[in-house]
Design goal:
This protein is mostly helical and about 575 residues long. The protein has 26 helices and six strands. The protein has two domains: about 25-265 and about 275-410, no CATH class; about 420-570, no CATH class. Helices cover about 60% and strands about 5% of the residues. A six-stranded mixed beta sheet has the order 2-1-3-5-4-6, sandwiched between helices. α8 runs antiparallel to α9 (about 175-190) and α21 packs across α22.
Amino acid sequence: MAHIPRDDLYSSVTVDSTVRRPNPAVAAAYRLIAPALGCFTFALYWRTAARSLVLGDGPILAAAGSELGVPPATGYPLYTLLAHLFVRLIPAGEPVFRTAILSSVLSAITVVCVYLLGQRLFRNRWLAMSVAVLLAVSDTFWSQAVVTGVFPLHHLLLTATLLCLFVWDRTGVRRYALGAALLAGLAIAHHVFAILWLPGLLLLAWTSRQRAGLPRARWLIILLLSPLALYSITLLTARRDPAINWGDARNLSNLAAHAGDITLGDRMGFGSGAVFRARLVNYAATPEEHGPDGLLRLQYPMPALWLAIPGLIALLRLDRRTLGVTALLYGCSLLGALAYYGPDYAHAYLGSHLIVLLWIGFGLRVIHGWLQRLNRRLPMRRHEHREVRVLIQLGLVAMPMALLPVNYRLNDLHGVDRDGGMVRAMIERIEPRGVVIVDAEPIGFGLQYASVVEKLRPDVRIVSLRYFQPRSYRLILRERGSDLAVAGPGSEQHADTIYPQTAARRRFVRFILDNYQRRPVYLAGALAGKLERSRTTRSLLPAHEHVVEHVPLIRFLQGSAPGSHSEGHP
C-alpha cells in the first residue's frame, strides 16, 4: 500500500477491516441498516408526537400550512408547501398533528444522513450507527421532532449539504458538488441560520484535492441562488389574501421586507459583553433547576462529551483539515445561536450540537481502535476474538440507547393537551363579537390557530399587533367588513403606545379607542403583560380588568374613559 501522508490519514478511502468484502448476505444486511434506522427513528417520533396544539411557533406554522398562507418572517415557502402537502395527504388527526408528523419524517431522514456521513468520516458502520442513534435519542433534537417547527427541515438540509460535500471530497464525483450547492441554496432560502455554515463549507471545498474537478463557478452560483425563486410562491400566496398573511407580501417591496427580515423579528444580538458571557454560561454550564439551562449537556450526557476530547486530539494529530472545517462550522453556528434570544432558543444550538456529535464520533473511533487492539492481544481463540469484536460493536450502539427511557419520558407528548385546552378555554371566555389583539408570541399564535383552523368562535376577531405596521396595515383595513371602526393609514393622533414614537403603535391605540365602546376588546398573551408594565400606555387607554386570574387576558371596560386606568378583577 502506498504511503499515506499523516494529515490525510482520515481522508483516505481505505475501509475498516470489519466491513471489507462481506459475503452477499452480509452486504444485503448492511444495505438495510440505513432504512431500518430511519424507520425505527420515525416510529419513535411518531409515537411521541404531539397530537394537539403545543404553544410555540408551531400553531401559526400549522395554520399557514393548512390554509396555504404566509407565516411570520421569513415566510418559509418550502416548509409551507411541505406542511400543506402533509395536511392534505394525511387523512387523520388535527392539522397541527399532521405537521408534527412532517417534523418526525424530516428528523428521521436527518438521522439517516448522519449515519451515512459517519460512514464516510469514521469508515465504520457501527461507529456511524452509534452517533446516529445518539442524535436520534438526544433531548433537544427529539423535542423538535415531535412538534411543528421549521428547524427539522433546516437541520436536514444542512446535514445533507455536508454529506454531499464530503462524498464529493472523497470521490470527486461532480454531481455531489452540484447537489451540495443546491442543498445549501435551499437551506439558506429556508432559514437564515444556514448562512452561518457557509464559511466552513467553502473551506472544505477550497482545501479539497478535488477542487480542480469542480463544476464551473456559474453553475454552482446558479444552483446556490435558484432556491430563492421559492419566494415567488410567497408573493402569489399573499395575493390570495389568506387569513394567515404575515407581512402582506403581495408586492416586491413587502416581499423583500418580509423575506429579508434576517433579525428574526428583532430577536438577534448580544446587547453587551455581560449578556454574551451569561449566554455562554447558559450553554456550557451544568443544568440547574433555578440556574443555567446547560444546553450542551442537555443534548449529550457528560460521558459522551468527554469522548469529544480524544476525537479532537486525534484530528489535531492526524487530520487538521477536518479539524479546521468542523471547528469553523462549530464556531460560526455557536455564535449565531448565542446571538439569538427568541422564546424557544434551545433549537438554535442544534447546528453546533451536530458538529460536537462528529467530534464524539471521532473520539469513539479512537476508543474503538484501542479496544480492538486489546482484543487482538488477549490470549484467546479465533472465534472468541470474533465474539468479543461483535460485543464491542453492539456496545457502541447500546451506549446511546441508555438515553432512550429518560428522554422518552421527557419528550412524550402523545395524549398531552394542556396547551390546547388552555387556548380553547381562553377563547371561550371571550364575549360574543369580541375582538382580541395578540402579538407574535406563543399564546397569540395559539389563538390564531384556534380561530383560523379549528374555526372556534367565528364571531370573535383575532387581530395581530404586527398588522398595524405600515406595510401590513391593509390587513387591518380589511377588518372594516367585520363592523369594526378602522381609521385610515394617515391618522396617527391620540397616543403614544407600548413601543413609543412608532406610528404603528399609535394606530394600535387608536383602534382600541375607536372600538372598545362598540364591541368587547381584549389583549391576550404577552401583549397584556406589556400593558401592565407600561404606565404611559395605560394612561392613554380605558380601564381594564383581568378576565381570568393568572391568565394573560384583559378586557377594556366599556363605559370607562381613556386614561381611567384603574384595574379591576373578576
